[in-house]
Amino acid sequence: MGSGTRWPPWAALLYSPRARMGGGAGWGVPLKAIGWILFAGVSFRLLCSLSSSLESKEGKCDLFKGEWLPNPSGPAYTNSSCRFIDDHQNCMMNGRPDIVYLYWRWKPYECDLPPFNEVRFLSAMRNKAWGFIGDSILRNQVQSLICLLSKADEPVEVYHDKEFRNRRWHFQSYNFTVSLVWAPFLVKSEVSENENGESTSEIQLHLDVLEPTWISQYESFDYVIIAGGQWFLKTAVYWDNGKVIGCHYCQDKNLTELGFEHLYRRTLQSVLKFISSTNHKPVVLFRTWAPDHFENGEWSSGGTCSRILPYRKGEYSGKYMDSVMRGIELEEFNKALAVVNSSGDVVNLKLLDIYSLSAMRPDGHAGPYRMFHPFAQGNKDASSVQKDCLHWCVPGPIDAWNDLIMKLVLN
Questions:
Q1: Trichome birefringence-like C-terminal domain spans which residues (predicted)?
Q2: Is 88 known to be catalytic?
Q3: pLDDT computed for residue 290 by the predictor
Q4: What proportion of the chain, given as a percentage, has pLDDT over 70?
Q5: Global confidence as pTM
Q6: Which of 200, 147, 136 is nearest to 178 (CA)?
Q7: How far apart are the first and last CA of the chain?
Q8: Could you give the CA distance from residue 393 to residue 101 in angstroms, rounded to a whole number?
Q9: Within a 10 A sphere around the Cβ of 165, how many other Cβ atoms?
Q10: Residue among 136, 150, 189, 358 flagged as catalytic
């Protein structure tokens, strides 16, 4: 099913002029659509099944190019059925009144992407260990994965640090372990920052030293997902070989402004070199830049994300920063892959390119529902609530990231 796909009748309600408005204009749409969802569900599934079987014969598929289609089945879990969702991403618990954002699925143009199968995944990963290395967006993804897997086996959290940034879960029936490793820069850093992104001092970033927290655990993982990016936009003092060499956005210091592009590139080069040169060879998925959808400002300047529907093809071209950061990532990944292929080394390095499918989902962020607010009761202070247009509601579009993982790893 390509860009000309026929959608079931209820989908027309979602793209009506009224529904495409931001704010609360479309809150009533899901209720009107429920009857159509029930009616269209069987026929829609049959259509998708037939299309999938025909397209699979073509033998080609770019999982990362596609569109979001209406999904009458809804999410694989809910915030009621999964107790592992952090409060800041539990949008339904925090009062989000609309549900349309839960009724979409990612559809690659050339093939179909099966929904996550928790039993098949856990069976394949028996006696294995996964490590998720990165920042709070990767933590966001882990919440989704744990919720999906908990449908088959109840995980036990066997470790967490004081701030709950480093955590580990064990699925006893399968002897399967998922570890979350906090390394927002991937290189060594000294950070003093709270959950709201407020710092008491500049970040100290050591460009020549990979973060020991993940390096020390790397050999214990059979599979690794690694990602970075957003933190390089923050104010930071840069160190190299024990000396300060410059800064990014330090307005009140007499230090050379180094920007962040070259430093992010250098970091990725160091990370990918380590992965290709170390003796331990897990399957490594490099996750690309995750876009935000702040409008009318940024995180700390009143930015909002009030859209309630996905963008359609060609409707959104992204931000300048998306192009810069993702461009660096793709260049360095492809160079590293070329080196590995030419050397003949056994390195299982895969790209998890979530940018395009995520960029089309401005409706899936926590927004003002990163904390509880009784919006339905007409809270007059709603405009003063800080919006989160970077992290994702769980359940939500981020579940598709784990659908991709399963396809990449188990296909």
A1: 113-407
A2: no
A3: 96
A4: 81
A5: 0.85
A6: 147
A7: 20
A8: 9
A9: 16
A10: 136
